[in-house]
Amino acid sequence: MRTQVGIIGAGPAGLFLAHLLKAQGIESVILEARSRPYVEGRVRAGVLEPGTVETMARLGLDARLRREGLVDEGLDMRFRGRTIHLDLPGLTGKSVMIYGQQEVVKDLIAARLEAGDPLLFEAKVTGIEGIETDRPRIRYTQDGEEHVLDCDFVAGCDGYHGAGRAAMPRDRMTLFEQAYDFAWLGVLARARPMADMTYSNSNRGFALCSRRSMQVSRLYLQVPAETRPEDWSDDRFWEELHARMFDEGRSEIAEGEIFQRDLAKLRAFVAAPMQHGRLFLAGDAVHIVPPAGAKGLNMAVADVRVLSRALTTFYRDGSCAELDGYSATCLDRIWKAVRFSSALTGLLHRFDEHTPIQRGLQLAELEYISGSRNAQASIAEQYVLLNYLPGHD
Ligand SMILES: Cc1cc2nc3c(=O)[nH]c(=O)nc-3n(C[C@H](O)[C@H](O)[C@H](O)COP(=O)(O)OP(=O)(O)OC[C@H]3O[C@@H](n4cnc5c(N)ncnc54)[C@H](O)[C@@H]3O)c2cc1C
Protein backbone atom coordinates (compact mmCIF):
# COMPACT_ATOMS: atom_id res chain seq x y z
CA MET A 1 0.00 0.00 0.00
CA ARG A 2 1.18 3.53 -0.71
CA THR A 3 -0.07 6.98 0.34
CA GLN A 4 1.15 10.55 0.70
CA VAL A 5 0.99 10.82 4.50
CA GLY A 6 1.02 7.72 6.72
CA ILE A 7 -0.68 8.61 10.01
CA ILE A 8 -0.12 6.47 13.12
CA GLY A 9 -2.97 6.70 15.64
CA ALA A 10 -6.70 7.47 15.44
CA GLY A 11 -6.85 9.75 18.47
CA PRO A 12 -7.69 13.44 18.05
CA ALA A 13 -4.29 14.30 16.51
CA GLY A 14 -4.38 11.61 13.80
CA LEU A 15 -8.06 12.03 12.95
CA PHE A 16 -7.93 15.84 12.71
CA LEU A 17 -4.77 15.64 10.61
CA ALA A 18 -6.39 13.25 8.14
CA HIS A 19 -9.45 15.50 7.76
CA LEU A 20 -7.36 18.68 7.42
CA LEU A 21 -5.20 17.05 4.73
CA LYS A 22 -8.21 15.72 2.88
CA ALA A 23 -9.67 19.24 2.79
CA GLN A 24 -6.51 20.23 0.86
CA GLY A 25 -6.65 17.23 -1.47
CA ILE A 26 -3.82 15.33 0.26
CA GLU A 27 -4.19 11.55 0.71
CA SER A 28 -3.48 9.74 3.95
CA VAL A 29 -3.90 6.34 5.58
CA ILE A 30 -4.55 6.06 9.33
CA LEU A 31 -3.21 3.00 11.17
CA GLU A 32 -4.76 2.46 14.62
CA ALA A 33 -3.63 -0.30 16.99
CA ARG A 34 -6.94 -0.60 18.85
CA SER A 35 -10.46 -1.58 17.78
CA ARG A 36 -13.08 1.00 16.82
CA PRO A 37 -15.26 0.38 19.95
CA TYR A 38 -12.20 0.75 22.20
CA VAL A 39 -11.14 4.05 20.63
CA GLU A 40 -14.69 5.42 20.64
CA GLY A 41 -15.30 4.41 24.26
CA ARG A 42 -12.14 5.93 25.79
CA VAL A 43 -13.32 8.62 28.24
CA ARG A 44 -10.81 11.45 28.49
CA ALA A 45 -10.99 15.19 27.76
CA GLY A 46 -14.16 17.22 27.61
CA VAL A 47 -13.23 20.90 27.22
CA LEU A 48 -12.92 22.22 23.66
CA GLU A 49 -11.19 25.56 23.18
CA PRO A 50 -12.45 27.91 20.43
CA GLY A 51 -9.55 26.90 18.14
CA THR A 52 -10.74 23.28 18.25
CA VAL A 53 -14.44 24.17 17.86
CA GLU A 54 -13.75 26.44 14.89
CA THR A 55 -11.57 23.78 13.24
CA MET A 56 -14.45 21.30 13.49
CA ALA A 57 -16.79 23.91 12.00
CA ARG A 58 -14.45 24.66 9.08
CA LEU A 59 -14.21 20.94 8.33
CA GLY A 60 -18.02 20.60 8.44
CA LEU A 61 -17.74 18.15 11.35
CA ASP A 62 -19.62 20.14 13.98
CA ALA A 63 -23.29 19.23 13.40
CA ARG A 64 -23.61 17.07 16.55
CA LEU A 65 -21.30 19.35 18.52
CA ARG A 66 -23.65 22.28 17.83
CA ARG A 67 -26.68 20.17 18.84
CA GLU A 68 -25.29 18.46 21.92
CA GLY A 69 -22.30 20.52 23.11
CA LEU A 70 -22.66 22.91 26.04
CA VAL A 71 -21.21 26.41 26.02
CA ASP A 72 -19.15 27.00 29.19
CA GLU A 73 -18.89 30.68 30.03
CA GLY A 74 -17.50 30.46 33.55
CA LEU A 75 -14.50 29.02 35.35
CA ASP A 76 -14.76 29.03 39.14
CA MET A 77 -12.03 28.52 41.72
CA ARG A 78 -12.88 27.90 45.36
CA PHE A 79 -10.70 28.33 48.42
CA ARG A 80 -11.40 29.12 52.08
CA GLY A 81 -15.10 28.51 51.30
CA ARG A 82 -15.23 31.39 48.79
CA THR A 83 -15.52 31.34 44.99
CA ILE A 84 -13.56 33.30 42.38
CA HIS A 85 -15.74 33.49 39.26
CA LEU A 86 -13.95 34.02 35.93
CA ASP A 87 -16.38 35.36 33.34
CA LEU A 88 -14.72 33.89 30.24
CA PRO A 89 -16.58 35.90 27.52
CA GLY A 90 -16.26 39.09 29.61
CA LEU A 91 -12.52 38.58 30.06
CA THR A 92 -11.58 37.09 26.66
CA GLY A 93 -14.49 37.61 24.25
CA LYS A 94 -14.71 33.79 23.87
CA SER A 95 -15.97 30.75 25.73
CA VAL A 96 -15.15 27.03 25.67
CA MET A 97 -17.44 24.12 24.79
CA ILE A 98 -18.12 20.95 26.74
CA TYR A 99 -18.23 17.92 24.42
CA GLY A 100 -16.54 14.62 25.29
CA GLN A 101 -13.34 13.69 23.46
CA GLN A 102 -14.92 10.31 22.66
CA GLU A 103 -17.78 12.14 20.92
CA VAL A 104 -15.30 14.17 18.85
CA VAL A 105 -13.50 10.94 17.96
CA LYS A 106 -16.80 9.21 17.01
CA ASP A 107 -17.77 12.12 14.73
CA LEU A 108 -14.37 12.18 12.98
CA ILE A 109 -14.23 8.41 12.53
CA ALA A 110 -17.79 8.28 11.14
CA ALA A 111 -17.04 11.05 8.62
CA ARG A 112 -13.80 9.37 7.52
CA LEU A 113 -15.41 5.97 7.00
CA GLU A 114 -18.50 7.42 5.30
CA ALA A 115 -16.22 9.13 2.78
CA GLY A 116 -14.56 5.74 2.13
CA ASP A 117 -11.13 7.01 3.21
CA PRO A 118 -8.64 4.53 4.68
CA LEU A 119 -8.67 4.09 8.45
CA LEU A 120 -7.42 0.67 9.58
CA PHE A 121 -8.29 -0.53 13.08
CA GLU A 122 -6.34 -3.21 14.95
CA ALA A 123 -3.37 -2.28 12.76
CA LYS A 124 -0.45 -1.95 15.17
CA VAL A 125 2.65 -0.17 13.92
CA THR A 126 5.80 -2.14 14.77
CA GLY A 127 8.46 -0.06 13.04
CA ILE A 128 9.21 2.99 10.91
CA GLU A 129 12.06 2.90 8.41
CA GLY A 130 13.80 5.31 6.07
CA ILE A 131 12.79 8.55 7.78
CA GLU A 132 15.96 10.20 6.47
CA THR A 133 14.97 9.33 2.88
CA ASP A 134 12.04 10.69 0.86
CA ARG A 135 10.37 7.24 0.84
CA PRO A 136 9.77 6.24 4.47
CA ARG A 137 7.96 2.96 5.24
CA ILE A 138 5.70 2.01 8.10
CA ARG A 139 5.56 -1.64 9.18
CA TYR A 140 2.38 -2.81 10.89
CA THR A 141 0.58 -6.01 11.80
CA GLN A 142 -3.10 -6.70 11.19
CA ASP A 143 -4.91 -10.04 11.59
CA GLY A 144 -1.59 -11.64 12.52
CA GLU A 145 0.05 -10.62 9.23
CA GLU A 146 2.83 -8.12 8.59
CA HIS A 147 2.17 -5.27 6.15
CA VAL A 148 4.08 -2.27 4.83
CA LEU A 149 2.76 1.22 4.10
CA ASP A 150 4.99 3.30 1.81
CA CYS A 151 4.54 7.06 2.08
CA ASP A 152 6.08 10.49 1.52
CA PHE A 153 5.76 11.50 5.19
CA VAL A 154 5.02 9.77 8.50
CA ALA A 155 2.93 11.50 11.17
CA GLY A 156 3.39 9.95 14.63
CA CYS A 157 0.08 10.81 16.29
CA ASP A 158 0.20 7.72 18.48
CA GLY A 159 0.30 9.06 22.02
CA TYR A 160 2.85 8.79 24.82
CA HIS A 161 3.57 5.04 24.39
CA GLY A 162 3.50 5.00 20.57
CA ALA A 163 5.95 3.91 17.88
CA GLY A 164 6.49 7.43 16.47
CA ARG A 165 8.67 8.87 19.22
CA ALA A 166 10.45 5.52 19.58
CA ALA A 167 11.63 5.86 15.95
CA MET A 168 13.31 9.22 16.55
CA PRO A 169 17.12 9.04 16.87
CA ARG A 170 17.81 9.05 20.64
CA ASP A 171 20.76 11.45 20.35
CA ARG A 172 18.67 14.04 18.46
CA MET A 173 15.87 14.37 21.01
CA THR A 174 15.78 15.96 24.46
CA LEU A 175 13.13 14.82 26.94
CA PHE A 176 11.82 17.16 29.64
CA GLU A 177 9.67 15.48 32.29
CA GLN A 178 8.13 16.11 35.69
CA ALA A 179 6.00 13.44 37.40
CA TYR A 180 3.67 14.28 40.28
CA ASP A 181 3.14 11.94 43.22
CA PHE A 182 -0.64 12.40 43.09
CA ALA A 183 -3.32 11.54 40.53
CA TRP A 184 -6.90 12.42 39.63
CA LEU A 185 -9.62 9.94 40.49
CA GLY A 186 -12.31 10.78 37.89
CA VAL A 187 -15.91 9.60 37.77
CA LEU A 188 -18.88 10.05 35.48
CA ALA A 189 -22.17 10.29 37.41
CA ARG A 190 -25.79 10.55 36.32
CA ALA A 191 -26.27 13.72 38.33
CA ARG A 192 -27.28 17.30 37.50
CA PRO A 193 -23.97 19.18 37.07
CA MET A 194 -22.99 22.51 38.57
CA ALA A 195 -23.41 25.41 36.15
CA ASP A 196 -19.71 26.27 35.82
CA MET A 197 -16.50 24.27 35.76
CA THR A 198 -15.54 24.55 39.44
CA TYR A 199 -12.08 23.85 40.88
CA SER A 200 -11.47 23.76 44.61
CA ASN A 201 -8.30 24.02 46.69
CA SER A 202 -9.25 22.82 50.18
CA ASN A 203 -7.14 21.69 53.12
CA ARG A 204 -8.21 18.11 52.23
CA GLY A 205 -6.90 18.39 48.63
CA PHE A 206 -8.04 19.40 45.17
CA ALA A 207 -11.48 18.67 43.66
CA LEU A 208 -13.12 19.53 40.35
CA CYS A 209 -16.79 19.50 39.31
CA SER A 210 -17.42 19.73 35.56
CA ARG A 211 -20.16 18.85 33.09
CA ARG A 212 -20.49 16.33 30.29
CA SER A 213 -24.16 17.06 29.58
CA MET A 214 -27.14 18.49 31.42
CA GLN A 215 -27.62 15.04 33.02
CA VAL A 216 -24.02 13.84 33.46
CA SER A 217 -21.36 15.26 35.77
CA ARG A 218 -17.60 14.65 35.38
CA LEU A 219 -16.05 14.86 38.86
CA TYR A 220 -12.46 14.54 40.07
CA LEU A 221 -10.59 14.22 43.37
CA GLN A 222 -6.85 14.52 43.96
CA VAL A 223 -5.66 11.15 45.35
CA PRO A 224 -2.26 9.49 45.91
CA ALA A 225 -0.76 8.18 42.63
CA GLU A 226 -0.97 4.53 43.73
CA THR A 227 -4.74 4.70 44.47
CA ARG A 228 -6.96 1.91 43.10
CA PRO A 229 -10.28 3.42 41.88
CA GLU A 230 -12.21 0.38 43.16
CA ASP A 231 -11.10 1.23 46.71
CA TRP A 232 -13.31 4.30 46.59
CA SER A 233 -16.95 3.41 47.34
CA ASP A 234 -19.61 5.76 45.97
CA ASP A 235 -20.39 7.01 49.50
CA ARG A 236 -16.74 7.76 50.21
CA PHE A 237 -16.40 9.64 46.91
CA TRP A 238 -19.47 11.82 47.49
CA GLU A 239 -18.56 12.59 51.09
CA GLU A 240 -15.06 13.69 50.13
CA LEU A 241 -16.30 15.74 47.16
CA HIS A 242 -18.83 17.67 49.28
CA ALA A 243 -16.17 18.36 51.90
CA ARG A 244 -13.54 19.56 49.39
CA MET A 245 -16.08 21.75 47.55
CA PHE A 246 -17.13 23.43 50.85
CA ASP A 247 -20.67 22.05 50.29
CA GLU A 248 -21.23 21.59 53.99
CA GLY A 249 -25.00 21.10 53.89
CA ARG A 250 -24.53 18.59 50.99
CA SER A 251 -27.19 20.60 49.17
CA GLU A 252 -25.24 22.15 46.29
CA ILE A 253 -23.71 19.15 44.50
CA ALA A 254 -26.33 16.68 43.23
CA GLU A 255 -25.46 13.01 43.70
CA GLY A 256 -26.34 10.23 41.26
CA GLU A 257 -25.26 6.83 39.97
CA ILE A 258 -21.50 6.63 39.35
CA PHE A 259 -21.18 4.62 36.13
CA GLN A 260 -17.52 5.09 35.19
CA ARG A 261 -14.33 5.67 37.18
CA ASP A 262 -10.70 6.05 36.18
CA LEU A 263 -7.37 7.23 37.49
CA ALA A 264 -5.20 9.74 35.61
CA LYS A 265 -1.60 10.09 36.73
CA LEU A 266 -0.25 13.63 36.47
CA ARG A 267 2.87 14.48 34.53
CA ALA A 268 4.36 17.26 32.44
CA PHE A 269 6.41 16.07 29.49
CA VAL A 270 7.93 17.64 26.38
CA ALA A 271 10.12 15.98 23.73
CA ALA A 272 12.07 18.25 21.39
CA PRO A 273 12.46 18.57 18.48
CA MET A 274 9.17 17.17 17.18
CA GLN A 275 10.54 16.08 13.81
CA HIS A 276 13.40 14.29 12.12
CA GLY A 277 13.71 13.80 8.36
CA ARG A 278 10.28 12.75 7.09
CA LEU A 279 8.89 11.84 10.56
CA PHE A 280 6.72 14.43 12.34
CA LEU A 281 5.25 13.94 15.83
CA ALA A 282 2.09 15.57 17.18
CA GLY A 283 -0.12 15.50 20.28
CA ASP A 284 0.57 13.28 23.28
CA ALA A 285 3.41 11.61 21.38
CA VAL A 286 5.52 14.68 22.17
CA HIS A 287 3.83 16.48 25.04
CA ILE A 288 1.71 15.68 28.05
CA VAL A 289 0.36 18.31 30.41
CA PRO A 290 -1.22 17.87 33.83
CA PRO A 291 -4.98 18.00 33.13
CA ALA A 292 -5.86 21.08 35.24
CA GLY A 293 -5.63 23.43 32.24
CA ALA A 294 -7.81 21.15 30.01
CA LYS A 295 -5.19 21.54 27.30
CA GLY A 296 -4.02 18.13 25.95
CA LEU A 297 -6.67 17.56 23.28
CA ASN A 298 -6.58 21.19 22.18
CA MET A 299 -2.78 21.17 21.91
CA ALA A 300 -2.95 18.05 19.73
CA VAL A 301 -5.41 19.77 17.37
CA ALA A 302 -3.26 22.92 17.21
CA ASP A 303 -0.15 20.83 16.35
CA VAL A 304 -1.81 19.13 13.40
CA ARG A 305 -3.21 22.43 12.14
CA VAL A 306 0.39 23.64 11.86
CA LEU A 307 1.51 20.35 10.31
CA SER A 308 -1.29 20.17 7.75
CA ARG A 309 -0.57 23.70 6.59
CA ALA A 310 3.13 22.91 6.22
CA LEU A 311 2.36 19.74 4.24
CA THR A 312 -0.10 21.67 2.06
CA THR A 313 2.59 24.25 1.26
CA PHE A 314 5.00 21.42 0.39
CA TYR A 315 2.60 19.68 -1.99
CA ARG A 316 1.39 22.96 -3.54
CA ASP A 317 4.69 24.87 -3.93
CA GLY A 318 7.38 22.27 -3.28
CA SER A 319 8.64 24.43 -0.40
CA CYS A 320 10.00 22.76 2.75
CA ALA A 321 10.30 26.02 4.71
CA GLU A 322 7.16 25.51 6.82
CA LEU A 323 7.89 21.82 7.35
CA ASP A 324 11.41 22.69 8.53
CA GLY A 325 9.95 25.17 11.02
CA TYR A 326 7.17 22.85 12.30
CA SER A 327 8.81 21.92 15.59
CA ALA A 328 9.94 25.46 16.47
CA THR A 329 6.53 26.91 15.58
CA CYS A 330 4.73 24.39 17.79
CA LEU A 331 7.15 24.35 20.73
CA ASP A 332 6.73 28.06 21.39
CA ARG A 333 3.00 27.49 22.07
CA ILE A 334 3.52 24.10 23.73
CA TRP A 335 5.87 25.46 26.38
CA LYS A 336 3.33 28.18 27.21
CA ALA A 337 0.62 25.53 27.60
CA VAL A 338 2.88 23.35 29.77
CA ARG A 339 3.73 26.40 31.88
CA PHE A 340 0.05 27.31 32.34
CA SER A 341 -1.03 23.74 33.17
CA SER A 342 1.82 23.31 35.64
CA ALA A 343 1.13 26.69 37.29
CA LEU A 344 -2.58 25.87 37.68
CA THR A 345 -1.65 22.47 39.13
CA GLY A 346 0.67 24.18 41.61
CA LEU A 347 -1.99 26.71 42.57
CA LEU A 348 -4.86 24.29 43.13
CA HIS A 349 -3.43 21.07 44.63
CA ARG A 350 -2.18 20.14 48.09
CA PHE A 351 1.45 19.02 48.10
CA ASP A 352 2.67 16.74 50.92
CA GLU A 353 6.02 18.46 50.85
CA HIS A 354 4.58 21.96 51.31
CA THR A 355 5.79 23.75 54.41
CA PRO A 356 3.35 26.10 56.20
CA ILE A 357 4.88 29.07 54.39
CA GLN A 358 4.36 27.43 50.97
CA ARG A 359 0.71 26.78 51.84
CA GLY A 360 0.41 30.41 52.95
CA LEU A 361 1.86 31.61 49.64
CA GLN A 362 -0.55 29.41 47.66
CA LEU A 363 -3.54 30.89 49.52
CA ALA A 364 -2.11 34.41 49.13
CA GLU A 365 -1.98 33.90 45.36
CA LEU A 366 -5.63 32.83 45.34
CA GLU A 367 -6.49 35.93 47.43
CA TYR A 368 -4.63 38.07 44.89
CA ILE A 369 -6.46 36.52 41.93
CA SER A 370 -9.74 36.98 43.80
CA GLY A 371 -9.18 40.75 43.99
CA SER A 372 -7.52 41.42 40.63
CA ARG A 373 -9.36 41.56 37.32
CA ASN A 374 -5.99 41.59 35.53
CA ALA A 375 -4.93 38.34 37.22
CA GLN A 376 -8.30 36.80 36.33
CA ALA A 377 -7.97 37.98 32.72
CA SER A 378 -4.53 36.36 32.46
CA ILE A 379 -5.86 32.98 33.64
CA ALA A 380 -8.95 33.23 31.42
CA GLU A 381 -6.86 34.15 28.38
CA GLN A 382 -4.58 31.14 28.86
CA TYR A 383 -7.49 28.80 29.57
CA VAL A 384 -9.38 29.83 26.42
CA LEU A 385 -6.95 31.15 23.83
CA LEU A 386 -3.50 29.53 24.14
CA ASN A 387 -4.13 27.22 21.16
CA TYR A 388 -6.24 29.65 19.16
CA LEU A 389 -3.87 30.32 16.17
CA PRO A 390 -6.08 33.05 14.63
CA GLY A 391 -5.90 33.29 10.85
CA HIS A 392 -3.82 30.12 10.65
CA ASP A 393 -5.94 27.95 8.34
C1 LIG B 1 -8.41 11.38 32.31
C2 LIG B 1 -7.97 12.37 31.27
C3 LIG B 1 -8.60 13.61 31.20
C4 LIG B 1 -8.21 14.53 30.23
N1 LIG B 1 -8.87 15.75 30.18
C5 LIG B 1 -8.54 16.63 29.21
C6 LIG B 1 -9.29 17.85 29.02
O1 LIG B 1 -10.24 18.15 29.75
N2 LIG B 1 -8.95 18.68 28.00
C7 LIG B 1 -7.93 18.37 27.15
O2 LIG B 1 -7.67 19.16 26.23
N3 LIG B 1 -7.20 17.22 27.29
C8 LIG B 1 -7.49 16.33 28.28
N4 LIG B 1 -6.80 15.15 28.38
C9 LIG B 1 -5.72 14.86 27.45
C10 LIG B 1 -6.23 14.35 26.12
O3 LIG B 1 -7.12 13.29 26.30
C11 LIG B 1 -5.03 13.93 25.26
O4 LIG B 1 -4.12 15.01 25.24
C12 LIG B 1 -5.45 13.57 23.84
O5 LIG B 1 -6.06 12.30 23.82
C13 LIG B 1 -4.24 13.56 22.90
O6 LIG B 1 -4.63 13.10 21.63
P1 LIG B 1 -3.61 12.31 20.71
O7 LIG B 1 -4.35 12.03 19.46
O8 LIG B 1 -2.32 13.00 20.68
O9 LIG B 1 -3.31 10.94 21.51
P2 LIG B 1 -4.31 9.72 21.86
O10 LIG B 1 -5.69 10.20 22.09
O11 LIG B 1 -3.63 8.97 22.96
O12 LIG B 1 -4.30 8.85 20.54
C14 LIG B 1 -3.20 8.07 20.15
C15 LIG B 1 -3.70 6.86 19.38
O13 LIG B 1 -2.59 6.14 18.86
C16 LIG B 1 -2.86 4.76 19.00
N5 LIG B 1 -1.57 4.03 18.99
C17 LIG B 1 -0.64 3.99 19.97
N6 LIG B 1 0.41 3.22 19.58
C18 LIG B 1 0.12 2.78 18.33
C19 LIG B 1 0.81 1.92 17.41
N7 LIG B 1 2.00 1.38 17.70
N8 LIG B 1 0.22 1.68 16.20
C20 LIG B 1 -0.97 2.22 15.88
N9 LIG B 1 -1.67 3.03 16.73
C21 LIG B 1 -1.12 3.30 17.94
C22 LIG B 1 -3.61 4.66 20.32
O14 LIG B 1 -4.37 3.46 20.42
C23 LIG B 1 -4.49 5.89 20.25
O15 LIG B 1 -5.74 5.64 19.67
C24 LIG B 1 -7.16 14.21 29.35
C25 LIG B 1 -6.53 12.97 29.41
C26 LIG B 1 -6.92 12.05 30.37
C27 LIG B 1 -6.22 10.70 30.44
Short recap of the structure:
This protein is 37% helix and 30% strand. The chain has helices at residues 12-23, 36-41, 50-58, 63-68, 88-92, 101-114, 163-166, 234-244, 296-317, 321-324, 326-348, 356-371, 373-385; strands at residues 2-8, 28-31, 47-48, 70-72, 74-79, 82-87, 96-98, 119-120, 124-129, 137-142, 145-156, 174-190, 197-202, 205-211, 216-224, 257-272, 275-276, 279-281, 287-288.
Q: How would you describe this protein?
A:
α1 (12-23) runs parallel beside α9 (296-317) and α12 (356-371) crosses α13. It contains 13 helices and 19 strands. By secondary structure, it is an alpha+beta fold. The strands form three sheets. Strands 1, 2, 8, 9, 10, 11, 17 and 18 form an eight-stranded mixed beta sheet that branches. The model has no long low-confidence stretch (mean pLDDT 96). β13 and β14 (205-211) form a beta hairpin. The protein binds flavin-adenine dinucleotide. Flavin-adenine dinucleotide binds next to α1, β9, β16 and α9.
End-to-end C-alpha gap:
30 Å
Structural class by sheet pairing and helices: alpha+beta
Please give the radius of gyration in angstroms.
21 Å
Bound molecules: flavin-adenine dinucleotide
Note the total helix count.
13
Into which percentage range does the β-strand content fall?
25-35%
The number of strands is 19
Mean pLDDT: 96
Helix content estimate: 25-40%
**Per the principal axes of the C-alpha atoms, what is the gross shape?**
globular
Largest sheet: 8 strands, mixed
Low-pLDDT stretches are none
